[in-house]
Amino acid sequence: MKESNRQKILIFAIIALVITNITSLSFMWSMKKTEEKPHYHNGGENRGGMGKFVVRELGFDSVQQKAYYELRDKFVKQQFILMDSVKTLRRNFFNELKNDHIDSAQISQLAANIGLVQARLDRRTFNHFRQVKNICTPEQAAKYDTITQEIINRMVDPRRMPNNNSKNGRPGDTSKNEKRNYPIENHIPKP
Hints:
By secondary structure, the chain is mainly alpha-helical. Helices cover about 65% and strands about 0% of the residues.
């Protein structure tokens, strides 16, 4: 009798675990399916939200749209390659924590390489913004300056969210012109 009770409990536990796993997997699958991902491929209607935003806000004509999307698609492909390089370098950098003996020269080299690739990313972004501005009319260029400033603000401070209740988009901030007192000079290596 005791053995049959154990079997019943074991069967019940297995069934409960299977149901829990199926429920968990279904939930994760449905969450992944509903996530919006940018569409940087195929052009046209499948383009991501930022591209549509720029085209709409600046009022690009069809020739400008074609030029913009060609620039943007080339830029995104290049950026993804560099961003993957930064991820790999950072992974290698932090994997050094696993070593019992830390090679400070290796750590310095990895950190320097991360900085070099990040600098390339920033230069390419700057050049991309310049190239897009070059396809604008003078009126569009003035508006583009405003748009790029907002994009740059989001890049520099990704926590900045539009339409937040605070005046400048940062939770807890009360002043639109508030500046943090983090002198960049303290973080730039001296020659």
